[in-house]
Structures are given as structure tokens and as C-alpha cells.
Amino acid sequence: MKRLGFAALAASIVTAWSAGGTAQTAPTPDQVVAGLKQNLANSQKRLRTYEWVETTAVSLKGEEKTRKQQRVLYGADGKLIKTPIGSAAAPKPEPSGGRGGRLKERVVENKKDEIQDYMEKAVVLIHKYVPPTPALIQKAKDAGNLTVKPPQDGKVRAEFKNFVQKADLLGIDVDAKALQLLGLNVATWLEKAEDAVTLDVRYATLPDGTSYVAKTTFDAKAKNISVTVENAGHKPVGK
Fold it and tell me: What mean pLDDT comes out for the span 169-195?
């Protein structure tokens, strides 16, 4: 079985509104799009000066199956470099022997391969949402698929429907006062509409104001699969 790889989901965006938005009045769609497109690039640039530890846990039917940690930083080409920390490989169970035992082992391995294939498809899909690309943001706005809701509980929420595929929904929450990104969530589907999957991304802020993905949770209820990715321990590269 190939190693489960889901940590690449952790990517970061920072959202800020132009001067026209206030804590009492929702920014216009034009202001939302301008802020997103400008700050997507700014966020990635600032994060490239940091390294951090990423912890990924995969659960099936509520039971954790794998957990691994990686040191993460950006390479000169702008791509993430991930180096495993410690030993992530779990010991394989001893063969039970006999025909029945070998059959059971094959069933287990087939199930693992099925889950792996599913996860790889999920990763490809979610990469289309996180971080949202400026082109898709502009496309959603031009198609009339962007809604900016009035501030509530100190937050402004922007929602993009049909963002990547039909009947999906991307939501972004921003602190209306501090203009800092609080979270991002996605409701979409994999292969068919009945195969609903969700993604919840929580953000935090470093002392210098850099926003980063603190925790990402992916849920596929149809498969009883849940993946949690947490990022912590940020420090300047080389220190």
C-alpha cells in the first residue's frame, strides 16, 4: 500500500478588504475579489520565510489508523518540501497462517488500496479549492455566484457557489474588525453528487501578522473517512 499523503492540503491564504468595507457594512463583491486576489500572493510570499511541523492523522469509522509528522518549508521553486519526522510506519501484524488467514490479509490489503485510491482523488479535488485561485474567484464573481453577507458576530462571510463544480459551495469567514481570515469551508462531492465531502480550514496568526492554516479537517461520510492536518511550531527558516 502506498503511504497516505494528505498533508499537501495545508495551504494558506490571507483575505483583506479594501478601504470601502467597514465593520457595519459588508464589502461589495468587487472589494472582496480585489482583496482576495491581492492577498493570496502576499500570504504565500510571507509564509515562504517560515518552516513548521505538520501532523496528519487519518481515521476510519472514528478509529485513528495512521499518524505522521513532517517538517515543512518552501523550496526555492516555491513548492513545499516535506521531511518525515521519526518513524511513521506502523508495524505489520504477524501472518495468521492458513488459507483463511491469507484470504483475510488480502481483503484487508484490498480495502487499504481502495481507501488510498479514494484519498488520492479527494486530494486532487480539494487542491482546486485550497487555496482558491484568483481566476476561479473572478469567474465566480463574474457569473454572479458570489454573495457577501452582512457582518454578524464580528465576522463577514463571503460565499461562492458552483466554484469548482456544480452545486458546490466555498465559504470564507473574515474578522470584520481586524480584517483577518478566520476560516474557510467547502461542501462538495467526489465522482457523484451522493458522495458528499466537506473541508473545514481554521486559520491562526503569527506574531508578525502572517496568517496560516492551523487545522484542516476533511470528512467523507460515505466512506467513514476523516483526515485532520495540524500545523504548528512556525519559526523563521534556518533558526
Answer: 83
